[in-house]
Design goal:
- This protein has 456 residues and is α/β, with parallel strands linked by helices.
- The chain is built from 17 helices and 19 strands.
- The two termini are 41 Å apart.
- The structure holds flavin-adenine dinucleotide (FAD).
- Flavin-adenine dinucleotide is lined by residues 13-19, 39-42, 47-48, 52-53, 57, 60, 83-85, 103-105, 107, 129, 158, 161, 322, 356-357, 364-366, 369.
């Protein structure tokens, strides 16, 4: 056991943006000395910045340099390839650390709940995204891209990411860190049209304007929007600025039609998937036309008009949202799919806190997690001052590393991750790519655990 004047020991579970911002906020404050151990299920850090953010958005991915600076702090250690809840338990962490912060994100997906949803050819966009980003648990997947039209269900930025990747010229993707297996599959893709379908109207879509505006660059012949679906309506001046900007972009798209037969993106609004049909795999998607209703609170909702439309397609990607999954022993709010908490303090937990998507649900951009993490860290420090969080010393750092190495012989430390990072960057350099990702657990561990191999 460590002495009480030792630094406050904190375990952070999950190495995505929220975990790193929590670490940064703890290291930046000067009320109490801290030491941080970050646990990550994968051999690599950065969560969705590595395995979610699209490879053709390298500027956004470059936020990882902020996380690398935090990881270089002398009071910070990375323990990758450790599944909390599997390799080590919640109780083991709470007995070894003064505080535990869960930053595990939302690993599940929301479903459509329609007939035919489980047919081959109906896939979760979340899995497709992890596949093209080289997440080692998803690298074995394969997608049939031999149809002419793919349909993406959903009206957020993830839907646009997926549409862009499916439409982009392969030479352009070949300059990114997209997984090699995805690049190869996309090279042989026969998809000519990617239709993105939204339940409500154009004014309710949650796209951000830069993502909407850049779309034509990633196609051969532009973006198709039906003029009737973006017609001007009275009172638009009162809409939020982002909506007004989006409508302006959509109207520009509606003014000209893409050339038939050349790769393009189609945006369709006020339609819901009703059924997927096919003999053994998806061949058709039945869409229902919706009308829009304004509730007493001003919220716009979609109501089925009963009108149907059949779309021929062999690939339907569901991009209707992520969903948190419970962690063994921790409370879980099934309705909101989050760990219930008060300003980040886990409800009923003694020394447990949450940050990021598992705290508030899958909303907001990377930067939103910084403010969110600051709130949780403030609460943790307040609890420390008030005695609600009682220090119990925790194990000393060397004893923890010894315990972990026994528990997980494939433990990947910061040094191991540095070897992976260097190997990936070196492989990318001759091809003008930021990195060539190692996409299997075996490859990642071979490099991380064998410094001699990495040098050779
Ligand atoms: C497809 C996609 C694209 C996006 N693109 C953008 C974008 O372009 N710009 C932008 O600003 N935002 C973007 N976002 C949003 C952004 O990625 C999130 O706001 C952010 O990643 C949430 O951070 P987090 O730390 O809560 O979760 P995550 O980033 O998901 O990190 C959670 C981490 O916890 C680990 N973990 C989970 N369970 C365990 C366990 N039991 N034990 C140990 N480790 C565990 C996971 O492996 C993961 O590394 C995108 C999101 C998605 C899904």
């Amino acid at each position: 056991m460590a002495a009480s004047e030792d630094p406050l020991s904190v375990a952070i579970v999950g190495s995505g943006p929220s975990g790193f911002y929590a670490a940064g906020a703890l290291l930046d404050q000067d009320r109490v000395d801290v030491r941080i151990d970050m646990y990550e299920r994968l051999p690599t850090p950065w969560g969705l910045v590595r395995s979610g953010v699209a490879p053709d958005h390298p500027k956004i991915k470059s936020v990882s340099s902020v996380y690398a600076r935090i990881a270089a702090h002398e009071s910070f250690r990375f323990f990758g390839n450790v599944d909390v809840g599997g390799d080590v338990t919640r109780e083991e962490l709470t007995s070894r650390y003064d505080a535990v912060i869960y930053a595990v994100g939302t690993e599940g997906e929301r479903k459509l709940g329609i007939p035919g949803e489980d047919l081959p050819g109906s896939v979760a966009a979340a899995d497709f995204v992890r596949w093209y980003n080289g997440h080692p648990d998803f690298s074995h997947l394969s997608y049939d891209l031999s149809c002419e039209r793919a349909v993406v269900i959903g009206n957020g930025n993830v839907a646009l990411d997926v549409a862009r990747i499916l439409c982009s010229p392969v030479d352009r993707l070949a300059r990114t860190d997209i997984a090699d297996h995805a690049l190869e599959a996309l090279r042989h893709s026969e998809i000519r049209e990617v239709m993105v379908v939204g339940r409500r109207g154009a004014a309710q879509a949650s796209f951000t304007t830069p993502e909407l505006r850049e779309l034509p660059e990633f196609t051969e012949s532009g973006v198709d929007v039906h003029p009737g679906e973006v017609a001007e309506t009275p009172g638009e001046d009162g809409l939020p600025r982002v909506v007004q900007r989006n409508l302006k972009v959509l109207r520009e798209y509606a003014a000209s039609a893409p050339e038939p037969g050349r790769r393009h993106i189609t945006l369709r609004f006020q339609r819901s998937p009703v059924e997927l049909r096919g003999a053994g795999r998806v061949e058709q998607l039945v869409l229902g036309r919706n009308e829009l209703l304004t509730g007493d609170d001003g919220r716009i909702s979609a109501r089925d008009t009963g009108e149907r439309e059949v779309v021929e397609t062999g690939l339907v990607l569901r991009a209707v949202g992520y969903r948190g999954v419970p962690l063994p022993g921790l409370p879980f709010d099934e309705r909101r799919a989050i760990i219930p908490n008060e300003q980040g303090k886990v409800a009923g937990g003694e020394r447990e806190y949450v940050v990021g998507w598992i705290k508030r649900g899958p909303t907001g951009i990377i930067g939103t997690n910084k403010k969110d993490a600051a709130e949780t860290v403030r609460r943790l420090l307040t609890d420390l001052d008030s005695g609600e969080l009682r220090r119990h010393g925790g194990d000393d750092p060397a004893a923890i590393e010894k315990w972990l190495a026994e528990r997980q012989p494939g433990l990947v430390t910061e040094q191991g991750w540095q070897l992976i990072d260097a190997a990936e960057r070196a492989a990318g350099e001759p091809h003008g790519r930021p990195r060539v990702k190692l996409c299997s657990h075996d490859e990642l561990l071979r490099i991380a655990l064998n410094p001699d191999d990495a040098e050779g």
